[in-house]
Design goal:
The chain is α/β, with parallel strands linked by helices. Helices cover 36% and strands 21% of the residues. It folds into two domains: 166 residues, 3-Layer(aba) Sandwich (Rossmann fold); 94 residues, 2-Layer Sandwich (Pantoate--beta-alanine Ligase, Chain: A,domain 2), CATH 3.30.1300.10.
Length: 279
């Protein structure tokens, strides 16, 4: 595996190049993205860059874990071809950028509303990293559904010639979606956090049985209500093309998404399903 810190050292790929963009502190969820990339491309390039534009709290940015040596060892084991770990000035050579990407109306709902400016920062660094690494395909995880929608919308609207591939959410044996935040959960809180995946399964099962949007959400909400310790921020059905909520009489593909705080830890999860189709 080559480790480079400057974009000028990246060079071109001998075949199809897939990029997996991360902020480091890698876990099994990230490695699943790497494996997905390896299944569809000749060369896999992983970026590790803690993007300051994604943080609205300077304290969070300062304390974000930086474990580059351990990350590199994991990626080496997975057979990654290139690790690009740039310094701040390589990505933002002029300092904080004057021109940035706006997520537009995606900022107004759910994760965008909960984390003001977050998706603008994500899209700005994603576009910059695409320009620096020049991939044919970029791989993202399904767990961050609204981020996937935002990135796909950006590449469409700005005519960015990069295919967006989505890898399935990686879950532990108990159904909890893998996340770097899971380490902050106590044993009791982890049990409480399972309400999120149970709610999604209940809503998905209801949809498979022909339920309406309202009925499917009600089925999931009943699961969440059984665990008061899971403080729900939203549980909603999203349009997969816009990330906005769908009406109660909607029929078609939806993303049912949930965000909740368990203790001090904020968790998100989702499932894709179809409304108006009975198996």
């Amino acid at each position: 595996m080559r480790i480079v810190t400057r974009a000028s050292e990246l060079g071109g790929a001998s075949g199809t190049r897939a990029v997996v963009m991360t902020m480091g502190a890698l876990h099994e969820g990230h490695l699943a993205l790497v494996r997905h990339a390896q299944s569809i491309a000749a060369e896999v390039l992983v970026t590790v860059f803690v993007n300051p534009l994604q943080f609205d709290d300077p304290g969070d940015l300062e304390h974000y874990p930086r474990t580059l040596e351990a990350d590199a060892a994991l990626l080496e084991e997975e057979g990654v071809d290139v690790l690009y770990a740039p310094a701040l000035e390589d990505v933002y050579p002029g300092g904080t950028p004057i021109v940035t990407v706006s997520a537009g109306a995606i900022n107004d709902v759910f994760e965008g509303a909960a984390r003001p400016g977050h998706f603008d920062g994500v899209l700005t660094v994603v576009l910059k990293l695409m320009n620096l690494t020049r991939p044919d395909v970029a791989v993202f995880g399904a767990k961050d559904a609204q981020q996937v929608i935002a990135v796909r919308t950006m590449t469409r609207d700005l005519n960015v010639p990069v295919e967006i591939a989505v890898a399935p959410t990686v879950r532990d044996h108990d159904g909890l979606a893998r996340s770097s935040r899971n380490v902050f959960l106590s044993a009791t809180e982890r049990d409480d956090a399972l309400a999120l995946s149970r709610a999604l399964r209940a809503a998905d099962a209801a949809a498979d049985s022909g339920a309406t949007v309202t009925e499917a959400l009600l089925a999931g909400s009943e699961e969440l209500a059984r665990v008061p310790a899971a403080q729900v921020e939203y549980f909603a059905a999203l349009d997969p093309s816009s990330a906005h909520p769908v009406p109660g009489d909607y029929r078609g593909e939806v993303v049912i998404a949930v965000a909740a705080r368990v203790g001090k830890t904020r968790l998100i999860d989702n499932v894709s399903t179809r409304i108006g189709h009975s198996s």
